[in-house]
Each structure stands twice: as structure tokens, then as C-alpha cells.
Amino acid sequence: MEPITVVVSGAAGQIGYSLLPLIANGRVFGDRKVNLRLLDINMGTIPQVLGGVKMELEDGAYPTLLSIEVCVADLQKAFTNADVAILTGGFPRKQGMERKDLISKNAAIFGEQGAAIEQYASKNIKVLVVANPANTNCLILRNAAPSVPAQNFTALTYLDHNRGKGQLAIRLGTTVDNVKRFCIWGNHSSTQVPDPNNGTVTIDGVERSIVEAIGDDNWLNTDFVKMIQTRGAAVINARKLSSAMSAANAIAGHIRTWLVTGTEAGDFTSLAVCSDGSYGVAKDLVFSFPVTCKGDGSYEIVQGLNITPQVQERIKATEAELLQEKKDADEILAAK
């Protein structure tokens, strides 16, 4: 099998530091050899930090790691013939910033990276956007690279998916592998919609619906939803840093499920992808849906799920937020 060239932006950051060993040790791409490109900005000590990260990767003696290139503010070097891009780097939200301010700061970053993907990358490149606001950053990026198929661009809600499965498993006294058909709808924000209503859990060999097994609709529809919507903020409050270990694990799971293994039979996962109008969601938004993957870079949005009135109302609210973000991004880009 031919080696795969993988770009990781924000490679000097804490998510990058947790993610890169997972890529290098085969956790993501299996036995396939990897050419790794570490992309970050030329600011402060970041170039030196990248050099140190490169040394640690070399010292790890990872058997699937074929090469490492440091790309300091060099988009051409980073994206030339790249097969996969994992974009964790973006302008962070600071105290007092509105979401529109964050979109404004990131529009230039992701517009430039999209243009570089358009010009230099493989036309079949697969892209995962992690930096927030992830869905709208992904939309900006995709629009700047029109020759790459829209279905090749995704944003990360796999972390929210994992958070939901984890809390359901704890509540049910089981492990996450026994929890199936849970999903996240919408935006990677506090409006996201955790939905266990089509889910199942297997305990002692018996499969039941999650709703039946939990037996507490109030907890499922209020406390649980709020917990997952605000989990990122809770982590920041606890460790004074944003999620890194769990984010890196989710990135690895997203890429591996999408590009390598596919989803398990009878189950689905959550990816933020370009809407095709399913479930009445506006077309072309980058929106989290329940999807199945074949492991070859393709995916299908799961159809025919039962959507409760409460979930439907929340889906419309998260869609409205994304439509406003798109409007803000369009105005910002038009003014440039």
C-alpha cells in the first residue's frame, strides 16, 4: 500500500501533542506508512516547539512513521500532494469575544488554507476541521477549495459522540462498546443535539432501547443533554485547559472510522458533513448527522430515524445558529 501524506495544523498545540503519537504508532492508519507534515504559525517559540515535537517523534521509533516535515507558516510545503489534512489550529476564543468575532478571526485562516488545498493538495484529499467554530470553519474551507468534492470535508463532532456514549455507559453500568445508535445533530457548540432516542444497549446479552434501559425521560431529555452540550466548558473549568487527550482520541476515531475501518454493522457514528437536505436541514451547511462509513472515505447519512418533537425543535435551533454563522461568514468574506 502506498504511503499516506498527512498534514496536522496546530501541531505545536496540546491537541497536536496528544494526536501525533496516535498517527505515528498505527492507531489511525494501521500498518500504512505515514509521511507526516507538522504545520503551525511563525510566532513566539512555536518554531522551536515544532522542532522539539519532531525530535520526540523521531525518538519514539514509530514503525509506521516514514518521514516528518516541519512546515512553519508554509502552506505550499504543507499541502502539496497531501492526502489527509487534520486542522486543529485556529484563532482561539478569548474572554469577551462573540462568536462572530471568532468567525472573523478564523475566516482568513481557513480561507487561506482552503486556497492552498485547492492549489496544491491531492484532489481527493480528505479534510477534518477541529478548530472552533469547527462547522463554519469547515464551510469556509470547503468554499475556498471548489474543485475538491464537498463530501471530502468534515468537522469534528465525534468527540461529542464519545462524550454522550461515555455518560450513557456510566449511567447504565456498562462499557461504551455496548452502547449503539447514539448520535449528535447539528453544530459543535452548546446548541448541539445529543440524541439517544434511537439507541440501544446490550447488557448480559440482552439488547434493549436506551430509553427503556435508562427509565428516566427527564434525565435523558434535560440533565444528560445539558451535560454533553457543556462538557467542553466543564473540562476547561476543571483543568484550566481545553480538552486535548479526549479530542485527540476522537480525531483518531473519526479518521479511522471514515477512512480505514468503517462503522460496525448495525451501528452509526456522528460526523459533521455537508448537508444534502436530509431531515429538512438546509443544504450545504456543515451539520452533524448520524452516518455510516464504509472505510474508504465515503459515508451515508442514516435515513428514517425516529425524531421526537423535542429533538426536532432542538435540531431547528442548532440549524438556525449555523445559518447565522454562515451569514456572518459570508458578510465577513464579502467585506475583505
List the helices and strands and how they pair.
Blueprint lengths: L3 E6 L4 H11 L9 E7 L5 H14 L5 E8 L2 H5 L4 E4 L11 H22 L5 E4 L4 H10 L9 E3 L2 H15 L6 E2 L2 E3 L7 E3 L4 E4 L2 E4 H5 L2 H13 L1 H9 L5 H17 L7 E6 L11 E8 L5 E3 L7 H27 L1
Parallel strand pairs: 1-2, 1-4, 2-3, 4-5, 5-6
Antiparallel strand pairs: 7-10, 8-9, 10-11, 12-13, 13-14
Task: Explain what the structure shows.
This protein is an alpha/beta fold and 336 residues long. The protein has 2 domains: 4-155, Rossmann fold (3-Layer(aba) Sandwich); 158-323, Lactate dehydrogenase/glycoside hydrolase, family 4, C-terminal (L-2-Hydroxyisocaproate Dehydrogenase, Chain A, domain 2), CATH 3.90.110.10. It is 44% helix and 19% strand. The chain has helices spanning 14-24, 46-59, 75-79, 99-120, 134-143, 158-172, 210-214, 217-229, 231-239, 245-261, 309-335; strands at 4-9, 34-40, 65-72, 84-87, 126-129, 153-155, 179-180, 183-185, 193-195, 200-203, 206-209, 269-274, 286-293, 299-301. A 6-stranded parallel beta sheet has the order 3-2-1-4-5-6, sandwiched between helices. A 3-stranded antiparallel beta sheet has the order 7-10-11. Strands 12-13-14 form a 3-stranded antiparallel beta sheet. Strand 10 (200-203) and strand 11 form a beta hairpin. The protein is globular and about 55 Å long.
Helix content: 40-55%
Strand order of the largest sheet: 3-2-1-4-5-6
SSE ordering: EHEHEHEHEHEHEEEEEHHHHEEEH
CATH topology of the largest domain: L-2-Hydroxyisocaproate Dehydrogenase, Chain A, domain 2
Strand element count: 14
The radius of gyration over CA amounts to: 19 Å
Proportion of residues in extended strands: 15-25%
What overall geometry do the principal axes of the alpha carbons give? globular
Overall number of domains: 2
CATH class of the largest domain, named Alpha Beta
Named CATH architecture of the largest domain: Alpha-Beta Complex
